[in-house]
Amino acid sequence: MQTRRVDPVLALAGLGVGLVVGLTGMGGGALMTPLLVLVFNVPPLAAVSSDLAASAVMKPFGGWVHYRRGTVNWQLVRWLCVGSVPSAFAGVLLLRVIPGDEAVQQSIEYALGAALVLAAVGLVAKASAGRRRSRRGGKEPATIVVRPLATALLGAVGGLVVGLTSVGSGSLIIVILLALYPVLRPNDLVGTDLVQAVPLVTAAAVGHLLFGDLQFPLAGAILVGSIPGVLIGARLSSRAPGDIVRAALVVVLLASALRLFGLPGPVVLVTVGLTAASAVAILVTARRRNRTVETALEPVGHP
Q1: Which structural domain range is residue 179 located in?
Q2: Angle made by CA atoms 66, 69, 72, in degrees to the nearest 5
Q3: Which of 113, 106, 130 is nearest to 253 (CA)?
Q4: Considering only CA atoms, which of 39, 62, 40, 77 is closest in space to residue 200?
Q5: What's the domain count of the chain?
Q6: Residue 302 lies in a domain
Q7: Cα–Cα distance between 252 and 275 in angstroms, integer?
Q8: N or C: which end of the chain has fewer CB within 10 A?
Q9: Residue 303: inside a domain, yes or no?
Q10: Is residue 133 very low, low, confident or very high in pLDDT (cuts 50, 70, 90)?
């Protein structure tokens, strides 16, 4: 691979992915790894390892911003890491057990595609849950009761997926976190996820480094754009249009998954087009409904 030729493009891709990660806590491996495989023709194993190494350096910058804002639940971080760190390293070891070079590459592609579909479904579920909570208008409790065993098991599942595919440190874990702790504030959700991802992706990256899969020039090119991107995204996260970001992320996740499953280009384009159109229709309908409710609640002026 001619790494020097694609360095500027990789840096630009890293900037975009970093912005999404900083804004939502999701999208690092779910976006960058498929881009490396599908656009830059990087072998899947090298793409996974290089993206993990870049994430291990990039995510602490976003996590630091949330740490300074006090939007990190350290109890959740602790129990997530109990399960995720050893499981991520085990996922890397599992890759070495799969026999045959072609079999390894194909297995990673299919595992990555399945992880992306799960991430997309989870994002839709998260958005639906958020809308239901906003309609109920209930107040969120001041404290979160941590469930250690369930949280550690969540971390273990996420860590295994990350070790195998580099996907899950944000996209999958943040979705299941929302399922376990639906009253966790969005800012705390993003901040907690970014911080717990640091030891998680580091453990997986070290595993790949030991086996010689890591390509340092590739990871360095990603970091050139992703570090400023995640800093900007984290600073804007409290004011970000979350619905729009989630809708775009779902479209990209589905497109990448379909390509990794080997579906032809026209099928992918039609599916992505229908998904994007549906997302736009849902967003427009939701905004109109909100405006109607706000108008109905406005006090009537007296002459």
Answers
A1: 7-297
A2: 50
A3: 113
A4: 77
A5: 1
A6: no
A7: 10
A8: C
A9: no
A10: low
